[in-house]
Amino acid sequence: MSERTVPVRELPPLVPPGADGGLRRVLKDRYLLRLLVRRELKARYKGSLLGLGWSYVRPAVHFSVYFFVVGVFLGMDRHVEHFPIYLFTGMVLVNLFTETIHSCTRSVTGNGPLIKKVFLPRELFPVASLLVSLVHFLPGFGIMLAGALTYGWRPSPGGLAAALLGFAIIVVLGLGIGLLFAGINVFFRDLEQVVDIMMIVITWSVPMIYPWWHVRDEAPSWVLDLYLANPLVSAVSLFQRAFWFPGTHGDFTFPPDLYGRAAIALAVAGLVFLAGSLVFARVQRRFAQEL
């Protein structure tokens, strides 16, 4: 009776943890990503009475302060038609950007115990922070849409395309900077203080509280060139073009060559995202050691 030979199954070669992936692994580990998003939301609102309700309270208070101080007391509502919608349209987008950078910067250091115990694709943490920021963005966006409808806004293909382009600039640029800062913050914790200062500067560096032509009329030409080169200026202007401008009389002038500048801004955001991904992938090998 002849013996049958059992074929030997070849095992795949051994690879170091994380060598198969980076951000591509994030797409494969969607279950882990959902767990991290739920974990971060629960941790943020643990012991809170309102929970996600604070996502409505914060933008409402933020808006009220700027509206009454800048719009009413300083008279900006007399210079910009439907100033409440103009203000809030820019605010929801700027808040998404600043929260993304703020939370992504602390995403790795805030999960230090987990990183030291088990291996997970490190990119999961900044991406989870971005998704949490998007969760907080939705309530403000819904309020903005309701207000825009009240002031006569109606959707149009051109407006929706402008909104998607502005949104893409914010998300790609925010995640790119977030990945870069998350990696650097593991080694230099002073970056958290720098980010807090950046939040103040960003608010005043976009045409949200004031129209862009204030810079054109009051500042030197080189300052205007630097101002218009800011990708956030193009993103906010596109969002205003989509949700605020259709409800006005149509006599507002947006920055020159808005869509051309927006295309350049999206390309710059893509380069920043690529640079942030490369830096994060390079330094993540030392995260467990540094944490």
Describe the structure.
The chain is mainly alpha-helical and about 290 residues long. It is about 70% helix and about 0% strand. The protein has helices at about 25-30, 30-45, 55-75, 85-105, 110-115, 125-150, 155-185, 190-205, 215-220, 220-230, 230-245, 260-285, 285-290. α7 (about 155-185) packs antiparallel against α11 (about 230-245) and α11 (about 230-245) crosses α12 (about 260-285). The protein is globular, with a radius of gyration of 23 Å. The model has no long low-confidence stretch (mean pLDDT about 85).
Brief overview:
The chain has 291 residues and is mainly α. The chain has helices spanning 23-28, 30-44, 54-73, 83-105, 112-117, 124-150, 157-185, 191-204, 213-218, 221-229, 231-243, 258-283, 287-290.
Shape, per Cα inertia axes: globular
Low-confidence runs: none
Helix content: 55-70%
User: Largest sheet at a glance?
Assistant: none
SS class: mainly alpha
Could you tell me the strand content as a percent range?
under 5%
Number of DSSP strand runs: 0
Distance between the termini: 63 Å
Topology as H/E string? HHHHHHHHHHHHH
Q: How many helices?
A: 13
Return the average pLDDT rounded to an integer. 84
Radius of gyration: 23 Å
